[in-house]
Design a protein that fits this description.
It is a multi-pass membrane protein. The protein is of the alpha/beta class. 52% of the residues lie in helices and 16% in strands. The two termini are 67 Å apart.
């Protein structure tokens, strides 16, 4: 059973990401290690703060401890309780060797206890008002300023209870276990200031790297190339999300394991299940936000330099608000509202976990009935909201045109007769069923000084189904911009585009019709091989595996790519990368193929290979070829338009342009010497024999003339020059030629400039 279309597209994107990670894991490893180091710091902080109260211990305090430190004790009893007080004092003296002072009045007792100047000496007192075997009423006095011994009020009280118990049962004793809750809460409070912040950095800052790949795909038009090959946009995002989620979960689970390994109480005390799911759901919260924010960045440089700072601010702002403004004293209900912000969600969860770690033990399964469930729901639901927001941004950006210049007037200039006829024919609608129709197309940019300039200016043309249409022009003529607008790589400013009578409203509308070989090879994946490129785009374009293998072998043979099939693209020479781009453009059955300077960077042999491939694979397809190689246009194109400064200045077949603009014959003369007298003699001869001739160029011992073709045939020019070559006129050799496309192009350039 074959794979479904969704499975193929998902597999292709996932496969691409996997091999990119294998060939360049450095970035992910670096961010992963940094994330884990923050987790280690959090674990160390936990050890430093919590090690004093991790478990209950039996008190080893006894009266002998006080005897060692030379403490005294004061006692008071009324007439009824005096016997009991004395018995207690005697018991203490027997156990500790201390002298117990017994007072007859409460006033003497309190004066001695409260007014003594040596507060460290009297740390314990007992006043008994009533005692019998069934009940005891009294007051325990404790000096909290004791500094010489590590004696707590609870420990002294336990010794006292032991003594009182022996009064009624001399053979028995009382021992107590202590849960130092106050110390635990203080440690938990300190940890909640810093631990959640460190873990928020550990689990959120790494999220920035997941924007890098999608921005780079968009910046270098790799996404656009995949979309024109049949990939659906939502599958692209879903496959990237699944891949990034796997990586993110891997790091987050390691972070959680690190905290467990360090015996972090906020994680292991009553919280192991609660915090585990907090870490597991966190990527569902942050990844959609990262993807949505990435849509506002157009370059890898901008996103790598700015998005990380944005995430850091999102981490720190809620933290400082809660910590500095509210002194970390904030109700759980209020904190849950702030937790819609992804970085604070995990901060709040760990803060709650730290508080619960010193509370009563609970069953781990109770996590599904308390406030942690709300945190989980926020992570999932808010993540879905961020994803919807991202799709809305993508949709709006896709439908947005360029600068609004509808109110600006069309430039007025003298239009060539053929170009005017072409525009009239296009605007009449008579050619709307052709492969490509462009009507009054404008593309406006803003330069670095804020001035508007038109890269494409009021262009109207049509390309017939099945023809190779050439767009000639020098650098900066607007050829690439015209192609980018038609293919949906960039938005148009005004005008109308039809592909096979389908109006292109947004860039994605053109994707199902076109295949592109752009001017530069940045759309190739540098960390994949040529064979992997063929595999990716072949599957996207609907090839079966066996059929694809046969097709790929043919392209490798035609372009001599077989020996490079398993090299990474970044290791290929510029020429071999270019041959791969040309081959990928023709792979599949796209009805329209755009070739932007396809052979400009190739050596002569490779250029011939590429031109042979174009001629072989062009049958039945419509090809728009942008080039500044005039010989290539002359060889391959059925019709040609010449663009200058964003406008079409000439249009027609090669023969038509040559007939129309080829108004002169070209002769090159080799002079006997470079002396001025020789040049003057030759010039006088040419002017006499060929009136109206003009010097086209002059170099050392040579000169070139243009001779009006209307008054003389080329054969007559040849005979005249040949007959007079040996008559001492001053030239030793000559060549005669008719106007080539190159000459036509130069004539049009000079005419346009004039």
């Amino acid at each position: 059973m074959g794979l479904s279309r969704f499975q193929i597209e998902f597999h292709v994107v996932f496969y691409k990401r996997w091999f990119e990670l294998i060939h360049y894991p450095t970035l992910f490893i670096a961010y992963g290690i940094a994330s884990i180091l923050f987790s280690v710091l959090t674990g160390v902080l936990s050890i430093l703060l919590y090690n004093s109260w991790n478990s209950s211990t039996k008190s080893d305090f006894s009266w002998e401890t006080l005897a060692t430190n030379g403490q005294k004790f004061l006692f008071y009893g009324n007439e009824t309780t005096q016997p009991t007080i004395k018995s207690v004092a005697e018991t203490i003296q027997q156990q500790s060797g201390l002298t117990a002072v017994v007072f007859d009045t409460l006033e003497e007792f309190e004066n001695e206890f409260f007014e003594t100047t040596d507060q460290n000496l009297y740390c314990f007192g007992l006043a008994v008002d009533y005692f019998n075997p069934l009940a005891l009423y009294g007051t325990v006095y404790f000096n909290s300023t004791v500094s010489k011994t590590e004696i707590s009020q609870a420990e002294i009280t336990s010794c006292l209870l032991d003594v009182l118990y022996k009064l009624t049962s001399p053979q028995s004793s009382v021992k107590f276990h202590y849960e130092p809750l106050n110390s635990g809460f203080r440690s938990a409070e300190l940890w909640s200031y810093f631990g959640p912040l460190l873990m928020s950095v550990a689990t959120n800052y790494i999220g920035a790297i997941f924007a890098f790949q999608v921005v780079e795909d968009r910046e270098n038009y790799r996404l656009h190339t995949m979309l024109t090959s049949g990939l659906r946009l939502w599958v692209y995002w879903f496959a990237n999300f699944v891949f990034d989620l796997c990586l993110y979960e891997f790091i987050n689970i390691i972070n959680w394991i690190v905290l467990v390994a360090f015996r972090t109480d906020a994680v292991i005390q009553n919280n192991w299940m609660a915090t585990f799911f907090l870490f597991v759901f966190q990527p569902l919260h942050l990844l959609p936000l990262i993807y949505s924010l990435s849509l506002f960045f157009d370059t890898l440089f901008s996103v790598s330099g700015f998005l990380q700072n944005v995430i850091l601010m999102i981490i720190l702002i809620p933290y400082f608000i809660v910590t500095l403004v509210f002194d970390n004293v904030i109700s759980d209900e209020t904190a849950l509202y702030i937790s819609v912000v992804p970085p604070y969600n995990i901060q709040n969860g760990l803060r709650m976990a730290a508080k619960r770690a010193v509370g009563k033990p609970i069953d781990a399964k109770e996590v599904w009935t308390d406030k942690f469930v709300i945190l989980y729901a926020e992570e999932i639901i808010v993540g879905i909201i961020f994803a919807i927001f991202g799709f809305i941004v993508q949709y709006v950006k896709g439908r947005t045109r360029g600068l609004n210049v509808k109110d600006s007037k069309k430039d007025t200039y003298e239009m060539d007769e053929d170009v005017a006829t072409l525009q009239e024919e296009v605007l009449s609608g008579n050619q709307d069923d052709q492969a490509i129709v462009v009507k009054r197309l404008d593309k406006v940019y803003v330069d670095s000084y804020g001035n508007l300039f038109k890269a494409v200016n009021n262009v109207s043309l049509y390309v017939q189904t099945g023809e190779i249409f050439g767009v000639l022009g020098a650098n900066g003529a607007g050829k690439t911009t015209l192609m980018s607008v038609i293919t949906g790589r960039t938005t148009l400013t005004s005008g109308e585009i039809l592909l096979f009578n389908h109006k292109i409203i947004q860039p994605s509308d053109a994707e199902r019709f076109v295949s592109i070989c752009p001017q530069f090879d940045t759309h190739l994946f540098p960390l994949l091989t040529p064979r992997q490129h063929f595999w990716i785009y072949g599957l996207l374009k609907g090839y079966e595996i066996k059929e694809l293998e046969k097709e790929v072998s043919e392209y490798e043979d035609l372009m001599n790519l077989g020996i490079h099939r398993n090299k990474l693209v970044k290791e290929l020479s510029g020429g071999n990368a270019r041959k791969l781009s040309i081959s990928l453009a023709f792979l599949g059955n796209s009805p329209i193929i755009f070739l932007d300077e396809p052979t400009a960077s190739l050596d002569p042999v490779a250029r011939l290979q590429a031109q042979a491939l174009i001629e072989q694979k062009a049958h039945g397809r419509t090809i728009l070829l942008c080039t500044h190689l005039l010989s290539e246009a002359e060889k391959l194109c059925d019709r040609i338009c010449i663009m200058l400064t964003g406008r079409i200045h000439a249009f027609g077949t090669h023969q038509h342009l040559s007939d129309k603009y080829g108004k002169s014959w070209k002769i090159d003369l080799g002079l006997e010497s470079d002396e001025e007298s020789c040049r003057e003699k030759v010039h006088s001869f040419i002017q006499k024999e060929f009136p109206g001739s003009e010097i086209a160029g002059s170099r050392f011992a040579s000169v070139t003339y243009n001779i009006p073709s209307a008054s003389i045939q080329l054969s007559e020019v040849f005979l005249t020059l040949n007959n007079n070559k040996d008559n001492g006129i001053g030239y030793t050799y000559f060549t005669c030629s008719m106007s080539t496309l190159e000459r036509v192009f130069l004539d049009i350039v000079m005419q346009a400039e004039s």
